[in-house]
Write a structure and sequence with these properties.
The protein has 174 residues and is an all-alpha fold. The chain has one domain (6-171). The protein has 7 helices and no strands. The protein has helices at residues 6-26, 36-46, 49-66, 73-88, 97-119, 130-161, 166-171. Helix 2 crosses helix 4 (73-88) and helix 4 (73-88) runs antiparallel to helix 5. The chain is globular. The two termini are 16 Å apart.
Length: 174
């Protein structure tokens, strides 16, 4: 299968769509859940650079098309986070769910803060919105803590059903 990036991309887009629906229903309560860190975790930890980065960058473009941020923001942030995680993955037990959970939480924290700085750059009073942003970050991290094991298992299973050999794929240099 020479389009190995398609299966992880589809799972990422389904997760983003699911959280877009959840955020739509949470909007009257003033809550927003961000799961960008979870989107890149499996791709960066378990897939080759070309396959994982292709899926991550395409998901970033799809997210940029609908999110109220400057176009290309998610593409750059998700791509940079993916490359950083990919570069450090050899030092850690990347197949372990616990490490995937920790990586997703840390990546989500970094992406959330970076995205907040980008979006708030033009805000007239950015200090006034930080308490709400920290509340959203807390809820997002709690949600990630609960769903990360499920989503990592889902991505692994989808790739297995697509006959992608994860052991061979993770050894790919590029």
């Amino acid at each position: 299968m020479h389009r190995r990036w398609l299966l992880p991309l589809l799972t990422m887009l389904v997760l983003w769509w699911l959280f877009a629906q959840i955020n739509h229903h949470l909007a009257p309560h003033g809550v927003y859940l961000y799961v960008g860190g979870l989107l890149i975790t499996f791709n960066a930890l378990r897939l080759g650079l070309r396959t994982g980065l292709t899926a991550t960058l395409l998901a970033g473009l799809a997210i940029d098309a609908v999110e109220p941020a400057p176009f290309g923001t998610h593409l750059l942030l998700l791509g940079a986070a993916h490359v950083v995680l990919y570069q450090i993955r050899a030092r850690f037990p990347r197949e372990e769910t616990l490490f995937g959970l920790l990586a997703a939480l840390l990546a989500n924290l970094a992406l959330f803060l970076a995205l907040s700085f980008v979006v708030l750059a033009a805000h007239p009073a950015p200090w006034a919105v930080w308490p709400r942003l920290f509340a959203d970050l807390g809820w997002s991290q709690l949600c990630l803590f609960l769903i990360t094991p499920w989503f990592l298992a889902l991505q692994r299973r989808v790739l297995e059903l697509g006959h992608v050999d994860l052991a061979a794929e993770s050894r790919r240099a590029f």
